[in-house]
Amino acid sequence: MSRRDDIFVNFNKYKEETEERVKNGIELNRKGFAKIKLVDKDGKPVAGKKIKAEQKKHEFLHGSNIFMLDELESEEKNEKYKKAFKDAFNEATLPFYWSDLEPVQGKPRFEKDSPKVYRRPAPDLCLEYCEKYGITPKAHCLTYFNFQPDWVSKTDIRDMKQKLEIRYKALAERYADRINGWEVINELFCTQPPWSKNAFFVSDDVLDWNFKLAEKYFPSNELIINEASQVWKWWHFAYTRSGYYQMIKNGLDKGLRIDTIGMQYHVFDRAPNEKNNVTDMYNPKALFSVLDTYEKLGKPLQVTEITIPAYSDTAEDEKIQAELIENLYSIWFSHKAVEAVIYWNLVDGYAAWAPQGDMTVGENIFRGGLLRFDMSKKPAYDMIKHLFTERWITNTEAETNGGGTAKFRGFYGNYTITVDDKKFDIKLKSNTENEIKIQL
User: Fold this and answer.
1) 165 by DSSP, 3-state: which?
2) Which one of 129, 130, 166, 204 has the fewest beta carbons within 10 angstroms of its own beta carbon?
3) CATH code 2.40.100.10 for 33-53+395-439
4) Hey, where are the domains in the chain?
5) 94-114, pLDDT tens digit by residue?
6) Cα separations (Å) of 336 from 115, 170, 242, 274?
7) Domain spanning 3-31+59-381 has what CATH number?
8) Would you state the pLDDT for residue 197?
9) Cβ(395)–Cβ(53) under 8 Å?
């Protein structure tokens, strides 16, 4: 059997059921009606007037990490990166890895001109870019034990907590009003070294303490828990008995403010073992089971770190990568509980644990980027852009009735309404009546 035959077996097996659920889910969960009432300067309804509605941005978040912002080896590449990012995404995951943000105690790299650390652009630089293009930033991550500075003890829990509180406080004071979403803690189910050698990581209060601290310093922000990709795997997933599910439920039952549930989706199997994912990560029935189960917790879900491997630069392998993305993104976009899908590395050759451009080591071996190392677009990039700017987009016209109201149905998000030569910006929001009055 070919690679294609191997990995699409369950997508093909459940094709009709999946397409039906995706179609219905998108209509039900991602679209709604807008009622636009036009009035004149005296407040009287304006009948028989045509309006044009053009969607500019989705409410649903679709993004990538922004770890290579101004990190590439030429200005030409940096400019291509910035253009490709803004053209495809409305969300960016910013690096707040403690060991790289504050390699020297008391000297955090906040400012845009801070000393460079590979794959760790300074927060101020990232925010300047995001705010320029209307991209929603998210912080990754407040507590992540695999990226703890050397100057923080790994054995003295009291020392660790004291220094973490200083970090939380400083980040909140500087960024809480500019970044809404904060991943509080990451990968508590990764129990192998170096995690397991950290005294606080193995302590009983690790989840409770961090979320209580986050609530103290980020009272108005979205607090997110994040976990590695095993949450989708058959050997971890056991419906409401799943370890991650139970950990979150226990936290919620104790009153922890876990606002959002993050679930990574890295397919980090080497090419010969890729078919190991057919049972779960490449199985629409299994994917819906995971989403339906975690929806029961009553919190929105984010697919936080997505890597779909191409493995090579052949046309067929790149086409398969794009088709997998089409299938997976359609499932996630259709599901009521999902609020965000976030791809991980935009460009091949700049992934973790590898020198740039070396495709033989680290996460580079998967060729999981959406652009090639030379910045040319892969079919995977074109697919994501197509989904959110062509397939799942609303551009329509309507006409006001005798009461001055025009109605249209569209995807939730930001719109420009044009009436004659005048333009008005509105938002079509989920879970809202969306009755909007415009005075001409």
Assistant:
1) helix
2) 204
3) no
4) 3-31+59-381, 33-53+395-439
5) 999 999 999 999 999 999 999
6) 42, 35, 21, 29
7) 3.20.20.80
8) 87
9) yes
